[in-house]
Amino acid sequence: MQHSFLLLLLLLLSFSSSLSPRPIPEDDDRHRQALFRATQYNSNYTWRSFHRLLDLERGSRVDGLVGLKQYFVRFGYLISSNSTDSVLSDAFDARLETAVLRYQASLGLPVTGKLDATTLSEVMAPRCGVPDLNPNRSRAAETVQRFTYFTGKPRWAGRKPLTLTYAISPEHTIKYVATADVAATIRRAFDNWARVIPVRFEEATHYESADVKLGFYGGDHGDGEPFDGVLGILGHAFSPESGRLHLDAAEQWAVDLGKESSEVAVDLESVATHEIGHVLGLGHSAVKEAVMYPSLSPRTKKVELKVDDIEGVQALYGSNPNFRLNQTVQSETSSAIALRDAIKVWRSISTLGILLIKITMMNVLA
Ligand SMILES: [Zn+2]
Ligand SMILES: [Zn+2]
């Protein structure tokens, strides 16, 4: 009798807590675990050593912090003015703190100014080599815009409907994936964008004459933006109308993650779709779910354009007459609702689980 009453009380409590609006739980612990797992990879991948910087904040000094400063210089968060600069020291100074704050704000992370697990796991995540910040962007625009453009908002000009040709370098390629599979994957990446804008992409017969030239390159490949081996920087592309799109040949590229077992495999269509966004004129987005967000975890597929990507690219080229933005808005809204409901159900189940354990223990003790 006592137990039934207790059960009823706890059930009521569990449901009231699961239905009341609560903030999403702090995911710092999840990132701590992810960081630990990442350091277990066999490969000696880029930025692996940054895990030692966990929980550092202003006032700390740790060997190797200079590497993180170089990272922030590379991606546009810290400016190195001369060789005696504080950028060359291992001290966590005010300038580094400002860089961390800007980084967190630009990537939609909790703005703490510290190297917490959430921030550090984002720093260590494989990413695009294109810098995140446009120094000419006004502060007001930063708070409104989620998608961004290159300085001067360049785009491909030409008669409408616009047709761009592309080709994959026959020389700079990867040997372990069939040429036809690479071609089909790159085709899909272009189609992801062609669905939403009135731009046609055609495979060129000659590499040299193509508007967009794709290739896999290793290390320093002559454009001042060297690649860095496994993970780290995955690829980069140049603003319109350059058309250069480069992928790091050192990655374990996958055209089908289901058939590729490597823990550091990188999905080719996802990175190609992102880099084509740059070729068209988009910069990085602060929206984590957007294709134009700068990082991509290994073994992750992210090819579906989100409303943020679509609004950004359509502001440059207009809309494909066959495309309806409302459908994407609705599907994003319904997946957000589904996620919220799933979290509620999960909370109810976990509360119920704890409850059942408690009752079982009470019965054992009774
Ligand atoms: Zn990028
Ligand atoms: Zn390059």
TrEMBL record:
Keywords: Glycoprotein, Hydrolase, Metal-binding, Metalloprotease, Protease, Signal, Zinc, Zymogen. InterPro entries: M10A_MMP, Pept_M10_metallopeptidase, Pept_M10A_Zn_BS, Peptidase_Metallo, Peptidoglycan-bd-like. GO terms for molecular function: metalloendopeptidase activity; zinc ion binding. Residues 1-18 form the signal peptide. Its cofactor is Zn(2+). Residues 152-319 form the Peptidase metallopeptidase domain. One of its GO terms (biological process) is proteolysis. GO terms for cellular component: extracellular matrix. It holds the Pfam family Peptidase_M10. Belongs to the peptidase M10A family. Matrix metalloproteinases (MMPs) subfamily. PANTHER family: MATRIX METALLOPROTEINASE (PTHR10201), METALLOENDOPROTEINASE 4-MMP (PTHR10201:SF321). This is Peptidase metallopeptidase domain-containing protein.
